Amino acid sequence: MTRPFATLLALTASLGFAVPALAQAAEKPVSIVLVHGAFVDASGWRGVYDRLTRDGYEVLVVQNPTITLEDDVARTRRAIAKARHPVVLVGHSYGGSVITEAGNDPKVRSLVYLAAFAPDAGESVAKLAEKPVPGEAGAPLLPPENGFLIVDPAKFATAFAADVDPAAGAFLANEQVPWGLKAVGGVVGHAAWHAKPSYFLVTTQDRMVPPTAQRGMAARAHGIVQEIASSHAVMLSHPDAVAGFIERAGGTRR
Fold first, then answer.
1. What integer pLDDT is reported at residue 24 of this predicted model?
2. Could you say which residues of the chain have pLDDT below 50?
3. E runs forming strands in 158-222
4. Which domains does the chain have, with CATH numbers?
5. What is the distance between the alpha carbons of residues 160 and 165, in angstroms, rounded to a whole number?
6. What is the DSSP annotation of 28-71?
């Protein structure tokens, strides 16, 4: 350490100043790729992104059009290719289907499913969602229009984001990204969770993907499961808990 730099450290310490750059200097040995689900865009990851980058991770955020599963997988693979380190691949909701296929990339270390679908080979989100769970609400979708689905705007806040600020929930309802039927019905060719460690954050207050269905998919994948009392929009209502869960899946936090 040079004398001027040592002097600067001593001075800042004596004055009670923090030196954030030094605390964050050691970059974590994994990269995190975040994949959003249906009806929202990548901006919903902001709180999680801020926490993870503050903790020293390289974080890449995929902006999927959610028109076809094939295109969303291709975009996710491009993000994986850009990562500097082995990847923890995270999917929310329909994003779970995307990471199940894209996660076969050899750079992917582990998979994280947040309130998410985890299809097996030959399955689609449509197939997984076709059987209702007794006593648990299903997604209040309107009939398809021009090849796309949306959530009934009058029911969106309650079904998708019941524990999010009401004004934010109302905005989300009105700025929905329509979900293409070719994404809903896109079939997974090979399920990465057969070969990669998988982590499932089950949202027990979910009214889009029933908690019982989430638990069933996690059990089938032999995943590590944690439950949280959250709506479907867990990355918005509990960003710190989500970030911590992702960090544990990366093996860099206990």
1. 46
2. 1-25, 254
3. 179-180, 198-203
4. 28-125+137-249 (3.40.50.1820)
5. 12
6. -S-EEEEE--SBS-GGGGHHHHHHHHHTT-EEEEE----SBHHH
Residues in the chain: 254
What are the C-alpha distances in Å from 166 to residues 156, 162, 163, 171, 230?
Answer: 11, 8, 8, 9, 15
Tell me whether strands 198-203 and 224-228 are parallel, antiparallel or unpaired: parallel
pLDDT value, residue 19? 35
| Cα gap 175→42, rounded to integer Å | 13
Question: Secondary structure of the chain: what % helix, strand, coil (to 5)?
Answer: 40, 15, 40
pLDDT of residue 48: 98
Greatest extent of the chain over all pairs of C-alpha atoms, in Å? 70
CA distance 95 to 73: 9
Spatial separation of the C-alpha atoms in residues 248 and 52, rounded to whole Å: 12
Enzyme catalytic residues: 93
Q: How distant is the alpha carbon of residue 27 from its chain centre?
A: 21
Distances (CA, A) of 108 to 1, 119, 199, 220, 252: 37, 18, 13, 20, 15
Residue 22's nearest CA partner among 8, 34, 36, 35 is 8
**pLDDT of res. 208:** 97
